[in-house]
């Protein structure tokens, strides 16, 4: 808040100084834009805004949301706003978007003033700028966009972006077994299956003595169950709770649910997410080629339901579970229809 007041006072002082100099005749208008120059000037404005938004958005994402990977950013950006936390939308508007608009506005005013006006000592001749303005605008726009893009990538991490677009792995070609090709044997008397997704609940909440990050164990019962009764997939030694390393395509809400139930990361065949398809609220084909736990159980005549307190369409979860197992979706909308919650009740990410 203090910085905003200081910036406003500085800007106010600059405006007063400009008006004083202009009224004294030291700044005179020397030219007007033609049609081509207006087009170049508009492109300059778009380039400056895009570059600044890339940087401010990247900085805000990495510092406000914490440890976020590039593939998570791409996936989230491809999704509809429905189901998104309204508080995050407001933060984005107030912080990176507003900052980008302010920077663009100031930059455009400065460039326009330099292009159409000249500091004059009465006897000096006007400088002819007409012929060079359009290429200068375009060159400056490209430089500003490139700078914003480079700074944005630096915030996210060059290695992360490089891995997403240019690196490949053979682990799935060499080790993945397609469940559709496996002869799975079910007993005559089948049993029910309850699968619980616990988002953001990780072994780091345990105390340091058993492999966590906390001084006090925040999940004592779950830790005891994992160590003494349950089966844990861990990289730690005996008596400790470990965990697995997150990989691209399996490290956020939708992709983790997909990877857990299909055994594959939420990526397209070329390794890059098909954001145009997955970004639709009702994609015709969500993650085609994957054969999931839901499809295995559907073939065995299981009646499947997916319960969640949020809106199922967020991040494509509804499409995935309906197309891969024909689940009966019971989410926030279902709870409203069943009058389990008031019509005007809304709490982001959970009933």
**Domain unit count:** 3
Tell me the series of helices and strands, N- to C-terminal: HEHHHEHHHHHHHEHEH
β content, as a range?
under 5%
Number of strands: 4
Structural class: mainly alpha
Q: How large, in whole angstroms, is the Cα Rg?
A: 28 Å
Q: Please state the overall shape, judged from the principal axes of the Cα atoms.
A: elongated
Mind summarizing the main beta sheet? 2 strands, antiparallel
Descriptive report:
The protein has 351 residues and is mostly helical. It folds into three domains: 2-166, no CATH class; 179-199 and 246-351, no CATH class; 203-242, no CATH class. It is 49% helix and 3% strand. The protein has a two-stranded antiparallel ribbon with strand order 1-2. α2 runs antiparallel to α4 and α2 runs parallel beside α5. The model is unreliable at 269-276 (pLDDT under 50).
